[in-house]
Write a structure and sequence with these properties.
alpha+beta, binds adenosine-5'-diphosphate, 40% helix, 3-stranded antiparallel sheet, binds magnesium ion
């Protein structure tokens, strides 16, 4: 097979979580499931209704541009993109053509071409219900029509499916850290479109292949898999003919792309400047304020977590991937009152990311509703270090904490789980046991390991089962080897 090199560029649309829509004051509420309630003459495209620009949406895009090192275009404007579709009541979409809000920038080493602002369409619902005797019906819900949509376009610099998925994932994380979008791919709040072609060097000359666009990708896995599939498919086609410029869809069940629309059917959008919205200068926004409103981004937090808490790459990633989880962890660490921080931070990490997250998943509890506070988790870890509980008992206590919201100390008291770890108290008992069991002591010293178990059992009896077995063993060994 000739050596083709994949060239990949992404276009990513994100629904912004502003209070109101892009060009009117209808609420922007993706959770609204009653159709056509968040609508008005502007987003329904009634003749004569005039749009106004949502300042919050512009600020969100500027923040994204600042976070990604892009240039904030000094002058920007909106344009009409004309096409017909039943989910587009005006017959055109207000978008940005030649003067996008943001120019350039980089993410994960990939150059960005632009970031612009536009409006979302309504949603079509195809029902199998037949009203008249002939055909099924389709419904249209305009709640989403006019919701602010941010589009990021990369340069074609991505080389593999994995790299593309990683880029999209990092972008999603940044949007969540900036708190400007829920960016859920399954819910269509973040939509990734892939452009892919295969190029080839022939006699020192680079020959660029024809690009194909892939749509309907609703997971990062689908982004990676569809690219891998398309690389193979195009290479196969190029063996005996040419790749057609077209839009393909991803069939997640069959794990293949299928042709949707060829170039001949491509639209001429007849872009022209939106006459109802004058161009505007971004200097009218307080860029310094917007810049200082950007808190720590995932990349910085990742590095800081690795350094500050001695976490390895994958441990840091587990936390960073969820802002709430990483904030919880950080605040628990700051409450950790222990002698050996390094070891206990690892223990805290494990109790949080496997046990507590496990309980959340098991009970489908959202993170916000967790009844265990960071202080209480830190307290649990401190109790283990102090020997008041065993690490194997801690899991049960954590479950109780999770169910009742009580602090670990209260649970220990009420369940009578408190272990005696006080060395002086235990030593007194050990001395008594040694005096009372001369034979077992002699046996142990003579090499009979089992006698140690017997002696520990005797001491445990005197402590009514509440002795910390680890402390008991340790102190017995100390006394018996004296
Ligand atoms: P337009 O859609 O305005 O014609 P382009 O087609 O140049 O703009 O770019 C759209 C997207 O396609 C961008 O993400 C870009 O990176 C990508 N792209 C452009 N050329 C290629 C190519 N030869 N192979 C793969 N992707 C490409
Ligand atoms: Mg395009």
């Amino acid at each position: 097979m000739p050596n083709y090199t994949p060239t990949i560029g992404l276009e990513i649309h994100t629904e912004l979580k502003t209070k109101t829509k892009m060009f009117c004051d209808s609420p922007n509420n993706p959770e609204e499931h009653h159709p056509n309630v968040n609508v008005c003459p502007v987003c329904l495209g009634h003749p004569g209704a005039l749009p106004t620009i949502n300042k919050e949406a512009v600020e969100f895009v500027i923040k994204t541009g600042l976070a990604l090192g892009g240039e904030i275009n000094p002058e920007t404007k909106f344009d009409r993109k004309n096409y017909f579709y039943p989910d587009l009541p005006k017959g055109y979409q207000i978008s940005q053509y030649d003067k996008p809000l943001i120019l350039g920038g980089t993410l994960n080493g990939i150059t960005l071409r632009r970031i612009h602002l536009e409006e979302d369409t309504g949603r079509l619902l195809h029902s199998s219900r037949v009203i008249s005797h002939q055909s099924p019906v389709s419904y249209v819900d305009f709640n989403r029509a006019g919701v602010p949509l941010m589009e990021l376009v990369t340069e074609p610099e991505i080389k593999s499916g994995e790299e593309a998925a990683k880029f999209a994932k990092e972008f999603q994380l940044i949007l969540r850290y900036l708190d400007i979008s829920t960016a859920d791919m399954e819910k269509g709040q973040m939509r990734v479109e892939v452009n892919i072609s295969l190029g080839k060097w022939t006699k020192g000359v680079w020959k660029q292949g024809t690009k194909v666009e892939i749509k309907n990708l609703n997971s990062f896995r689908a982004v990676a898999e569809s690219i891998d599939y398309e690389i193979k498919r195009q290479a196969e086609v190029m063996k005996h003919s040419k790749v057609h410029q077209e839009t393909r869809g991803w069939d997640d069940a069959k794990k293949e792309t299928t042709s949707q629309r060829s170039k001949e059917e491509a639209h001429d959008y007849r872009y022209f400047p939106e006459p109802d919205l004058p161009p505007f200068e971004t200097a009218s926004f307080n860029l310094d304020d917007l810049k200082s409103s950007i808190l720590e981004l995932p990349k910085e937090k990742r590095e800081r977590f690795k350094k500050e808490f001695q976490l390895n790459e994958s441990q840091a990633e587990v936390l960073i991937a969820d802002k709430k989880l990483s904030d919880f962890f950080e605040s628990a660490v700051s409450e950790l009152k222990v002698k050996n921080p390094a070891a206990n931070i690892q223990m805290l990490f494990n109790y949080l990311t496997s046990d507590l997250v496990g309980l959340l998943n098991e009970t489908s509890t959202p993170f916000e509703e967790i009844k265990v506070s960071p202080e209480e988790l830190a307290h649990l870890v401190a109790l283990i270090e102090q020997g008041k509980i065993l690490s194997r008992g801690a899991k049960d206590i954590l479950r109780k904490m999770f169910e009742t919201g009580e602090d670990p100390e209260t649970i220990l008291e009420s369940e009578g789980l408190h272990l005696v770890s006080d060395e002086k108290e235990i030593e007194k008992i050990i001395q008594a046991v040694i005096v009372e069991n001369e034979k077992a002591v002699a046996d142990y010293k003579g090499g009979k390991e089992a006698s140690l178990k017997f002696l520990i059992g005797q001491a445990m009896g005197k402590l009514r089962g509440k002795g910390n077995p680890e402390v008991l063993k340790e102190l017995f060994l100390k006394h018996l080897t004296k």
